[in-house]
């Protein structure tokens, strides 16, 4: 059981987390943040195993992982 | 016991820096300033300090920048081409408002130039020097005792105003031997050190930098510096007057030519010419106040300079050009004789040359 | 549930100002994690350069000094000489450390100055808008090498860490990359060691990190990582380029 949280105010929509996630937990959503970026969102939280790869590659420290 | 000793000018600066509590000296050898780093390399470690010979002048001034950020007393010294290299860093020191003491033992220029006495760096010293709109406090000693006293005080002034202070001397003053009294340094006034970076132990982090991409912040910074410079202008103008009270004519000169001009005044007086001297001690702020009483009183001025006429511009401004102001200059490392200065004055103002 | 990943204490809350996908942010997070893990945030004074990396003074939670272009290591030297018991590091781009500040890079290393330098190499000048860097690859197009870097005109890219590793005063040099999670973890290990070298008072340590510039490379962030892996990593010697005997025991 794990949980991933996107801090959308930090997200710049670079997609690195989306590409790296082996479980397809993350996607780019259809809502923008204050800076105008379509931010990453969690689409399939059940599948998250807390591997933290998304956080490791995130260039904006916009991801928190809980386990 | 008297502390009066015979010392070389450059070594006096080194000794005064140690006694002022300078703990770090970063420099790069260049004639005619080299005895400063040599003297300190030998003696600063005994006082618990460090001399580091940097890779170049740029390295040296930026090491000063770093050390000054910690609130440590730090100095560098060089000669004209080396000071040119330092200008980038000096501008950053001014912008970050860092108390760094600088010494320029002026050598001739432009280019590599020669080693003789010169005042060719007056503009560079007093009008900023590097990029951006800033000023250094510039002290111009003209004898051994002033080399000592001004170096001691430079550290206090730098800390008081959080601004680089430049001691402007030349190869003549730097290389000569003269008696000097190594006076005990008076206690430095307490200064605010709440700006230094030394690790954010139990406090908010601090940043010392000069970066502003916001024009509004940029202007606010410029206004703050301007206010500081205006305050210095108001409070720190210094000069010496010599037979100026009743003078009909004035010489204006500083440093090496300030010394020579004193003899010229005495010689003129012997001939019945009412000549006096105003010797600027702070070149920035330029002692404009010194000239106020003489504006409607004297007949003319000769500035004696070792350049193509640099200080004369400040003298003309200070006098509002209300009397004739002439330049007598030598260049390239040559010094004027007392006789040639007096002859020039007599010629310009059509004075009788007969002995009284 | 417990937080197993998030913003390290070595970083402030300020959002990075870099372009989307710029891996400066990953490298800064790694440094922030190291500062926290070694418990040196309050003992550390960082020195920021000019260029994109210059913004780092706002992002790290330790004291910071902003240096002139290329001068960060000279400034760091001054700080360290004044406060030998503090940790001093510089965070510089490749243009800063390997072109305009090369004299300081060489001599800070040769002196064995007890500071840590992080060099971020993205083979281009980012902030000024994509000009040729000392590290720009052969044939690589930039705004000042619009026909591709011509070795006859512009010379060869400079592998600074390799040069630095040959100097006696240097105790640790590593060249790492942030193109993949595995390499990011390797990069962190190297950065941590470079700080530990300083903590132990051993001498100079440099970590060069290959990084991306999606904006000026004209690639997506994802493609940038691939480009870095396929084009930069074969050119620059990777791995630990120098590990002094006393560092092996750390």
Number of domain modules of chain A:
1
| Oligomeric status | heterotrimer
Estimated radius of gyration of chain B:
21 Å
Globally, the shape of chain B reads: globular
Q: Largest chain-chain contact?
A: B-C, 39 and 36 residues
Give an account of the 3D structure.
The complex is a heterotrimer of chains A (67), B (356) and C (250). Chain A is an alpha+beta fold. Chain A has helices at residues 16-20, 53-57; strands at 3-6, 26-32, 38-42, 63-66. Chain A has a single domain (3-66), classed as Alpha-Beta Plaits, CATH 3.30.70.20. Chain A is globular, with a radius of gyration of 11 Å. Chain A starts with a strand and ends with a strand. The mean pLDDT of chain A is 97. Chain B is of the alpha/beta class. Chain B has 11 helices and 15 strands. In chain B, helix 4 (80-95) links the parallel strand 4 and strand 5 (100-106). The model of chain C has no long low-confidence stretch (mean pLDDT 97). Chain C is α/β, with parallel strands linked by helices. Chain C is built from 11 helices and 10 strands. In chain C, strand 6 (124-125) and strand 7 (131-132) form a beta hairpin. Chains in contact: A-C, B-C. Chains A and C meet through helix 1, helix 2 and strand 4 of A and strand 1, helix 1, helix 8 and helix 10 of C.
Give a topology summary.
The complex is a heterotrimer of chains A (67), B (356) and C (250).
Chain A: E1 3-6, H1 16-20, E2 26-32, E3 38-42, H2 53-57, E4 63-66
Antiparallel strand pairs in A: 1-4, 2-3
Chain B: E1 4-8, H1 9-19, E2 24-27, H2 34-43, E3 50-53, H3 57-69, E4 74-78, H4 80-95, E5 100-106, H5 122-126, E6 137-139, H6 144-161, E7 165-170, H7 171-175, E8 177-181, E9 207-208, H8 215-235, E10 239-242, E11 249-252, H9 255-270, E12 275-280, E13 282-284, E14 300-305, H10 311-318, E15 325-329, H11 338-348
Chain C: E1 3-5, H1 24-37, E2 44-48, H2 56-59, E3 63-66, H3 72-82, E4 87-93, H4 94-100, H5 102-110, E5 116-121, E6 124-125, E7 131-132, H6 151-154, H7 160-164, E8 170-177, H8 181-199, E9 204-210, H9 214-217, H10 221-232, E10 239-243, H11 245-248
Parallel strand pairs in C: 2-3, 2-4, 4-5, 5-9, 8-9
Antiparallel strand pairs in C: 6-7, 8-10
Helix pairs in contact in C: 1-8, 4-5
